[in-house]
Each structure stands twice: as C-alpha cells, then as structure tokens.
Amino acid sequence: MSFDASFWVAVAFVVFIGILYRAGAFGTLIRSLDDRSEQIRKELEEAKALRVEAQRVLSDYQNKFKAAESEADSIVAMARTEAEHYTQSVQAEFDAFMVRRRAMAEQRIAQAEATALAEVRGAAVDAAVKAAEIVLQSELKGSKGDAIVTSGLKDVAANLR
Question: What letters, b where the CB count within 10 A reaches 16 and e where it falls short, cover 91-118?
Fold first, then answer.
C-alpha cells in the first residue's frame, strides 16, 4: 500500500495535535488564541470609537466651514453696501461741487456783464458830454456861455457816473 503525501500530512497533523494535548500546551494555545481574539475585539472597538470621533470632528468642521462661508457672504454684502453708499456720497459731493462751480461761473458772468455795462455807460456819458459840449459851444458864444457850458458839463458828468 502506497500512501500519498496528503495522507502523511494528515497523519502528522493528528500526531502534532495529540502531542500538544498530552503536553498541556493545548490549553495554553487556546488561551493565547482567546487572548489574541480579545485583543482584536478591543482594537475593533477602539477603531469604531475613533471612527465615531472622526465623524464628529468632520461634522464640526463642516459646520464651521458653513459658518465661515455665511460670514464671508455677509462681509461681501456689507462691503457692497458700503461701496454703494460711498459711490452715492462721492456722486453727491461731485454734484454739489458742480452746482457751486456753476454758481461761481454765473456770478463771474454777471459781474463781467455789470462791469461791461458800466464801461458802456461811462463811454456813452463821455460821448454825450462831448457831443453836448460841442453843440452848446457852437450855440452859446462868449465867455459867459463858456462858463455855463463848462459848469453844466461837469455837473452832468458827475451825475451820470
């Protein structure tokens, strides 16, 4: 009878188990396997606890991220509002500046018109006085006429100015 290799492996295994049982090492082996399984169970529980903690931390960070996004949105909205108010303020200042400049320009124009009108009146008075002098000198003759004309012209010139 010839036995193959699997048979001899099975026989060797049974003999090995028997020796372990006889030597009392079988109980030690069982205890060591039980200890190892208990250690693995504890590590699994720790891993579960760590996973729960990681989920909690992730949730906290997601909440903080949402709060930060909300705060950033409110800061941007506030900045837009402030920019709009600033733009309106600058526009109002510019409009007021333009009104003041226009009023100053109109005032200068009115002043220039008044000055020009005064100069025209002065020139007209001078021309009228000269014309009156020429007319009166030709009409009034003599020293008495000259005195009346000169005196009258001075009065007229003083009153018209």
Answer: eeeeeeeeeeeeeeeeeeeeeeeeeeee
Residues 6+ apart with CB under 8 A from 29: 20
Residue 133 belongs to what H/E stretch? helix 25-139
Mean pLDDT of all residues belonging to the chain:
86
DSSP 8-state secondary structure symbol assigned to residue 3: -
- Where is 2: in which H helix or E strand? none
Q: pTM, whole model, 2 decimals?
A: 0.43
Using an 8 Å Cβ cutoff, are 125 and 161 in contact?
Answer: yes
Structure tokens at 123: 């020139």
Query: Where in the chain are the domains?
Result: 5-115
Q: What is the DSSP string of 70-89?
A: HHHHHHHHHHHHHHHHHHHH
